[in-house]
Amino acid sequence: MQSFPFIPMLLSALFITAENTNPPNTPTAPTEYHTAPFIPATTSNGVCLCPDEWTGVTCSVANLCNEATVEGFEFPQTVIGWSAYSSQTCENTTNNADISKASTRCLYNNGRPEFDRIQKIECQITLENIQVNVTGSLDAVETEQLASSTQILTSRPEWLTASNITSAAQIVNTILSDSVNITEGTAVAAVTTISQLLTADPQQFPNESNAFGRLTQNLETFSANPNNNFSLVVQPRLVVLATQVPTAQTAGIQFSALSGTSNNFTTSRIQLKTNMSEISDTEIPSDVQIFIRLPDQIHKNSNISVGFVLYENDLLFESKAFKTSLNTRRMVISGTLGNVKAEHVTLRFIPMNVSNKSLHDFACVFWDYSLNDWSTVGCSKANLLTGSLQCTCNHTTNFAVLMSFREDHKYAESLTVFSIVGCTLSILGLILTVIFQIITRKSRKSAPTILLVNICVCMTMFYFLFLFGIEKPNKGNSTVSEKNVMLLSDRHQDSDKGACTALTALMQYFLLATFTWNTLYAVHIFILIRKTLSGPPSGVLLVSLVTGWGLPAVVVAISLGVAYRVDNPLGYRREEFCWLQALNQDGKFDFGKPIFWGFLLPVAVMLLLNTAVLIYFGFATCKKDPLLNSTKNTSMRKRFLSSFSLGVLLGLTWVLGYLVLSTEGTTNCIFSILFCVCNTTQGLQIFILFTVRTAYFRKTFFSAANSVSS
Ligand SMILES: *[C@@H]1O[C@H](CO)[C@@H](O)[C@H](O)[C@H]1NC(C)=O
Ligand SMILES: *[C@@H]1O[C@H](CO)[C@@H](O)[C@H](O)[C@H]1NC(C)=O
Ligand SMILES: *[C@@H]1O[C@H](CO)[C@@H](O)[C@H](O)[C@H]1NC(C)=O
Ligand SMILES: *[C@@H]1O[C@H](CO)[C@@H](O)[C@H](O)[C@H]1NC(C)=O
Ligand SMILES: *[C@@H]1O[C@H](CO)[C@@H](O)[C@H](O)[C@H]1NC(C)=O
Ligand SMILES: *[C@@H]1O[C@H](CO)[C@@H](O)[C@H](O)[C@H]1NC(C)=O
Ligand SMILES: *[C@@H]1O[C@H](CO)[C@@H](O)[C@H](O)[C@H]1NC(C)=O
Ligand SMILES: *[C@@H]1O[C@H](CO)[C@@H](O)[C@H](O)[C@H]1NC(C)=O
Ligand SMILES: *[C@@H]1O[C@H](CO)[C@@H](O)[C@H](O)[C@H]1NC(C)=O
Ligand SMILES: *[C@@H]1O[C@H](CO)[C@@H](O)[C@H](O)[C@H]1NC(C)=O
Ligand SMILES: *[C@@H]1O[C@H](CO)[C@@H](O)[C@H](O)[C@H]1NC(C)=O
Ligand SMILES: *[C@@H]1O[C@H](CO)[C@@H](O)[C@H](O)[C@H]1NC(C)=O
Asked: Which residue has the higher pLDDT, 42 or 523?
């Protein structure tokens, strides 16, 4: 379509629905933070984003353990730091059919990556068993065994049920809250378990917003525990970092992470800087950065323990206030100091990419455990020129950025010269026709005059509205607000300002009215044929007036009542221009939308009625021809001709519209062009058929022309 610049885009848009502006959302897949996983990906500043398995400036350094057999168990190729699960699985007669029998971890030991010692599970054990047995009184070895069993039992996250997730979360919670006997192996198994839970089916997560409150709180406290026997655990969906920082040398600590093209975290993409005075961009790109400013009046020459926890998504933070309808997920990060209060915390997030949507606004929030929801208290925000979203908060805890997105609408092009000329000529033609009909009304009965005048008036109104109104008066162009206020949804919808909806309703009304009057005209002809000699019964005029102006009003009222809401006007009209909504959220034509049942369907019924009358009329005149006297016959023929003309005009034009809807490719293009040409010049055609062709007009016109020339 766009390749034909002369096509009046807007007129064709009344019918053509193929312009796909809304992306189809895959309902289950979480929105990716990154686009296609090309390898290696290069960012705008020329830094390589390596695939998970490779690292280094040119992505040539292996970041993986090759597949290997350890103690008779086969393990696949695995990224350094991640866990591997054996290809030997529990027999399918046991409780844990198809779950790996053993796990290990790929570590960088003795200068090269290799698999660590292995952990095995009993094939009959279940999460419920472990949940009963895990208590604070276990020794370190037993605890580690239970922790690694839990990890293996959750190694196929896609199989986890809601009760499995709850059990696993409670086991990890108990292990973490009893930090005394935790070995490094236990900590790694616990963190890996949570990481695996974060890839489970979101539908299986409990609906209560406080379900994981204790777990995330324990993890946060645990990360800043000075007795920790581990420093960094990086799993695909969760990073936990615990460190000791000498306060004498630093004003602040900065942690940054990049999830890369895969949404997975790897050790090579985590950076910690312990000697910073303010937040600053890192050499390698990062999705999230957090900077903790230490208090000034801190005892020098002491060590301070710092913990960071980074969640790849917010499944453990179920918000009631913030609704996600675009399947977006947010990273959640916590930064905690062991035993002092932070001066302030600064965060930077890269806005996520949502296809065919652009960022509308964002809010800097923290998880308020007393509310069990996100809160903005104590946080402020800034939209940086570099494109990242910056937050500053006066306390530490779990932070996130809530983002809302609006549709990237392709606003309709301006009216073309063609459609302006076509519409203007039509309006002139219609006005002349009305004047002519009124002047010459005496030569006709009153009913046809009123019907034709009403048709012309409705069409004129439609053309006026179309010329001045269809282009959206205020095209959506909002900017990020300055105040840090809570957002309610990740999908932003401008509330209705009224003008566009009013225009749509009026255009729907007058176009429907045009068809209604046209149908009344046909009915009128039908009555004339049936009662060839007498005129139409009295009262028909009144009924016509009520139907002609009332029926369209009823349809418009129903359409508005069913489809329109002030906070979501797009159920009724489109956003790109002021006309009835035709598409669903996936950009597909939807029979439930008002353009179908509030416009196309009534018009189709009326067109069918008109066609039926025309066919009937054709047969009736042919059959009765010999019986009628010649003058009746001619007047009948004339009527037939004029009603046929009108039927052709309105009917064929809009039948073309239906063809536009149901065809594709070149045929569609031809029909579109024909539709637009017929449509914009309809008023002109009516003028020619009903005015120029009449004998009276020609006589007047020629006498006027003669007097001018002489
Ligand atoms: C985004 O819009 C373009 C054109 O409007 C379309 O081709 C593309 O498929 C859309 N993307 C998605 C993910 O729907
Ligand atoms: C988002 O998409 C734009 C262009 O489509 C790209 O330049 C940018 O790097 C993407 N951002 C992320 C975080 O992937
Ligand atoms: C056990 O699994 C194997 C292969 O996975 C399959 O061939 C076999 O039928 C299964 N046995 C039972 C009892 O389900
Ligand atoms: C997961 O839950 C199901 C019931 O919902 C149970 O049958 C199964 O044993 C559980 N899996 C594990 C590993 O505990
Ligand atoms: C739980 O503990 C009991 C005894 O304390 C032991 O017999 C049982 O094997 C344990 N179960 C698991 C799953 O470890
Ligand atoms: C730690 O383990 C020892 C046995 O190794 C046990 O006696 C002790 O109670 C455990 N400590 C705690 C706090 O559970
Ligand atoms: C933690 O590490 C310290 C030494 O680094 C060791 O003495 C202690 O036993 C370890 N604790 C556990 C539970 O492994
Ligand atoms: C959460 O609620 C939704 C509907 O509100 C329901 O379909 C889903 O099963 C619930 N999930 C759980 C784990 O209860
Ligand atoms: C991310 O890691 C998971 C393993 O946890 C893996 O299954 C998935 O393929 C990874 N994603 C990509 C894009 O590599
Ligand atoms: C910390 O940074 C300052 C300058 O920014 C530098 O002078 C100092 O040596 C650094 N200290 C350490 C321990 O790196
Ligand atoms: C701080 O930690 C370092 C090791 O990271 C240790 O050598 C030093 O003694 C500690 N200082 C204090 C005051 O605890
Ligand atoms: C953070 O700021 C909020 C409001 O700006 C204030 O109510 C709160 O007391 C502050 N909290 C801290 C720890 O300073």
From this structure: 523
Task: Taking residues 654-662, report their average pLDDT.
Answer: 70
The rounded distance, in Å, linking the Cα atoms of 609 and 630 is 29
Inform me whether the pLDDT recorded for 40 exceeds 70.
no
Tokens of 418: 């063609």
The answer, yes or no, to whether any atom of ligand 4 lies below 6 A from the CB of 125, is no
How far is the C-alpha of 522 from the C-alpha of 518, rounded, in Å? 6
Closest atom, ligand 7, to C-alpha of 184? 14
Residue 536, pLDDT > 50, answer yes
Buried residues in 104-119 as b, exposed as e (16+ CB within 10 A)? bbbbeeeeebbbbebb
Q: Any idea of the CA torsion for 664, 670, 672, 678, to the nearest 10 degrees?
A: -150
> How far, in whole angstroms, is CA 233 from its chain's centroid?
35
Question: If you average pLDDT over residues 336-350, what whole number do you get?
Answer: 88
Average pLDDT of the segment spanning 538-567: 88
Q: Distance between CA 441 and CA 325 in Å, rounded?
A: 60
Do 338 and 221 meet the contact criterion of CB atoms below 8 Å apart?
no
Phi-psi sector, 610: left (phi>0), alpha (psi -120 to 50), beta = alpha
Ligand 1, atom 14: closest residue by C-alpha: 23
Mutation probe of ligand 6 site: the residue of 133, 134, 137, 227 with most atoms within 8 A of C-beta: 137
Two tokens, residue 84: 């591997």
**CA 241 / ligand 12 centre spacing (Å):** 27
CB neighbour list of residue 218: distance below 8 Å, 6 or more residues apart: 173, 176, 177
Tell me, in angstroms, the distance from the centre of ligand 3 to residue 96's CA. Answer: 13
Minimum-distance ligand 4 atom for the alpha carbon of 160: 1
* Whether the Cβ atoms of residue 33 and residue 22 lie closer than 8 Å to each other: no
Handedness of CA 15, 18, 23, 26 (dihedral sign): positive
Burial status of residue 446 (CB atoms within 10 A of its CB: 0-12, 13-18, 19 or more): exposed
- In this predicted structure, the answer to whether residue 407 has a pLDDT above a threshold of 90 is no
The pLDDT, as a whole number, for residue 8 is 41
Distance of alpha carbon 304 from alpha carbon 253, whole angstroms? 11
Cα–Cα distances (Å) from 261 to 49, 244, 265, 268, 345, in that order, read: 7, 31, 10, 14, 27
Ligand 11 pocket check for 302: Cβ under 6 Å: yes
Burial of 577 (0-12, 13-18, 19+ CB in 10 A): buried
The rounded Å distance from CA 165 to ligand 8 centre is 14
Structure tokens at 293: 């400013």
Domains recognised in the chain with CATH numbers:
17-41+224-408 (2.60.220.50), 415-474+496-625+632-694 (1.20.1070.10)
- Torsion sign over Cα 608, 609, 611, 615: positive
Displacement of CA 334 from its chain's centroid (Å):
29
Contact between residue 676 and residue 12 where contact means Cβ atoms under 8 Å apart: yes
Half-sphere exposure of 223 (CA within 13 A, CB side): 25
**pLDDT tens digits, one per residue of 275-300:** 888 888 777 778 899 999 988 777 67
- Report the pLDDT averaged over residues 582-593: 77
- Distance CA(171)–CA(133), nearest Å, equals 9
Res. 558: pLDDT tops 50: yes
CB contact set of 532 (below 8 Å; sequence gap of 6+): 624, 628, 632
On whether the CB atoms of residues 197 and 154 are closer than 8 A, the answer is yes
> Left (φ > 0), alpha (ψ -120 to 50) or beta: where does 505 sit?
alpha
| Cross-strand bridge partners of residue 560 | none
Q: What percent of the chain has pLDDT over 90?
A: 21
What value does the mean pLDDT of the chain take?
A: 79
